[in-house]
Design a protein that fits this description.
The chain is of the alpha/beta class. The protein is built from eight helices and eight strands; from the N terminus they run βααβαβαβααβββαβα. Bound molecules: iron/sulfur cluster.
């Protein structure tokens, strides 16, 4: 096995800055085949990506982490994506129900330390269960979200999952996302129209006021507002230059464009 570091990705990341989301999805499908999946929390960016996958006939799984305390609207959106876009949506679940977890550990999400443990058990660990099944995961993080995501790279190392994270919408502005959704009649989680700018678990998400930051509705009871669950390595500083993927040299060469005729 060889190492692919975040630093090794710098040149490719610079090249990809001028590529569209669809071009990045097509690159991922070509390079990784069935070993790439789309992650979607069934928020607007995630369903827009699902629509692009569907509209361009790309064959890839869609991973949805169901913490067991999702809004019914989010579960309904997942079901619509599966039925209307015909995608293979795989639901990943935690080991314990929220009731079992509460009996064993108490109401964790009411303290910052407990929130970290709860998100680890209910979000990150279910995703870790697919370690080894994929080489790359596509997500919907956008720089337009601001705060820690304002400088998110297009390609990021996720050493914990040993996958390349592909933030295909990193450059997609708020306006571009809205325009795409409107022009393509994309399936949209109805909670967005009810004041939820971002959508997570029902225990930890509220609507936001017009003058509040977009993430003000996440863990509002804990504050400050710029909190993240840790499922994305770039949110919590796990894509630093020294981080690396433990991959076969062939795969590294393919990703870096040293072993394929496919040029983007
Ligand atoms: S968002 Fe809240 S309920 Fe959901 S996993 Fe994290 S702490 Fe637990």
């Amino acid at each position: 096995m060889a190492h692919l570091t975040q630093a090794d990705l710098q040149a490719l990341n610079e090249t990809f800055e001028s590529r569209t989301p669809v071009e990045l999805l097509q690159w991922a499908a070509t390079v990784f085949g069935r070993r790439v999946a789309l992650m979607s929390a069934m928020q607007k960016a995630g369903t827009a990506l699902a629509h692009m996958v569907y509209a361009h006939g790309l064959a890839m799984d869609v991973l949805f982490v169901d913490t067991g305390v999702m809004f019914q609207e989010t579960l309904d959106t997942r079901d619509r994506v599966r039925q209307e876009y015909g995608l293979n949506v795989i639901t990943l679940s935690p080991e314990l129900t929220m009731e079992q977890q509460t009996r064993a550990h108490g109401v964790l999400y009411l303290t910052p330390e407990g929130q970290t443990r709860c998100c680890e058990m209910r979000k990150t660990e279910p995703l870790l269960a697919v370690r080894g099944r994929y080489d790359a995961l596509i997500g919907g993080l956008r720089r337009g979200e601001g705060e820690r995501r304002s400088r998110v790279p297009i390609l990021a190392v996720d050493s914990r999952l040993n996958v390349l994270r592909i933030n295909a919408l990193a450059n997609f502005s708020n306006e571009a996302l809205e325009a795409y959704v409107e022009a393509n009649n994309v399936i949209v989680n109805p909670l967005h129209a009810q004041g939820y700018t971002t959508i997570g678990c029902n225990r930890c998400t509220t609507p936001v006021l017009p003058n509040e930051p977009a993430r003000a509705g996440r863990w509002r009871h804990l504050g400050p507002w710029a909190m993240y669950c840790g499922i994305n390595p770039t949110d919590v500083g796990r894509s630093e230059p020294h981080e690396f993927l433990d991959w076969p040299q062939d795969l590294i060469d393919t990703v870096l464009g040293q072993k394929t005729d496919f040029a983007i």
